[in-house]
Amino acid sequence: MSALGLVNLAERAPAEQREEYLTLIKRSLLKLNSFIEEMNNFFRNEKLALQREKIAIRTLITDEIHDLKNLYHADKIRIDLKVDEGSDFFSDILRIKTVMTNILTNAIKYADPGKIDPFIQVAVKVRAEFCEITVSDNGIGIEAEKLDKIFTLFYTTTNSITGSGLGLYITKETVEKLKGYITINSKKGEGTKIKVVIPGIGYGM
Known about the structure:
By secondary structure, this protein is α+β, with helices and mostly antiparallel strands. The chain has one domain (51-199): Histidine kinase-like ATPase, C-terminal domain (Heat Shock Protein 90), CATH 3.30.565.10. The protein is 40% helix and 21% strand. The chain is built from five helices and seven strands. It has helices at residues 2-12, 18-47, 57-68, 93-109, 167-177; strands at residues 53-54, 78-85, 90-91, 119-126, 130-137, 181-187, 191-199. It starts with a helix and ends in a 6-residue tail after the last strand. The mean pLDDT is 83.
């Protein structure tokens, strides 16, 4: 409805104002698209049985970074990827992709483009028994008193229109479905570090 309202305004606006309305329409549609994708991820995680297949982690994450480059101000953020692939890794590719999409999207959404060198660093260690993923950034960070609520359904840390409060909840639920765990450390104004450890399917934690 928000996007449709903006379209109606843009149709009646002078030509010089239409670019501004197009920007607002794009923002509204991005929010809707993000919400739909998060709901899809939620229901897939709840309903689909685990699948075991070989995952090329470096390729999966590289593709995710490429796909997210057009999100918000991602073009202004330096994204570094280091992968230590010591072995083949078998898990559920759909769920691993869901985890990476949500974590990277969050890091981009809450980056601080006002800093001299806004960055996101992704470090991955792959073994047959587990995959360890650490995503660190120097974004806006999270207040200490909010960290214990960060994985709660529909909880958001800011008043940003881009946040639905679903992303990190789905991420935690997905990681737990894979028998793994997730931790988060953050400091307001300095940045956030999220670590995920997921066992290879066929191995115990």
